[in-house]
Design a protein that fits this description.
- The protein is an alpha+beta fold.
- Helices cover about 30% and strands about 45% of the residues.
- The protein has three helices and eight strands, in the order ββαβαββαβββ.
- The strands form two sheets. Strands 1, 2, 6, 7 and 8 form a five-stranded antiparallel β-sheet that branches.
Amino acid sequence: MSAWEHFEHEADIGVRGHGATLAEAFAQAALALTAIVTDPALVAPRVPVTIRCKAPDPEFLLVDWLNALIYEMATRHMLFSRYEVRLEGDRLEATAWGEPVDRSRHQPAVEPKGATFTALQVARQGEEWIAQCVVDV
């Protein structure tokens, strides 16, 4: 049931995660973020990075989570391909596994600048959770 996808939004890119749980939807949204840059299958999950966020509601938490990943990608010069997300109330604790960017292998397409509140939605739809927003590239 877990999946990710992109959706079009003017000059930017929408990311959407689907999951049986909210945590799975957040992890899939993160994988969609990676897929903006490169094919996630090209990124080896070698190095774990712990990420913690706190926000007043799930929508703000999604934006904080994706922006924390963008920060880690930029400052560590890494890409991530595996995510383990734990949610408890207004807190998120996650581990992202990845490796340093290898331009010849990863062939990065764009650099995400930030997750936005545009098209922001975190909701249960039927049997699955959806977590989505637009990412400025």
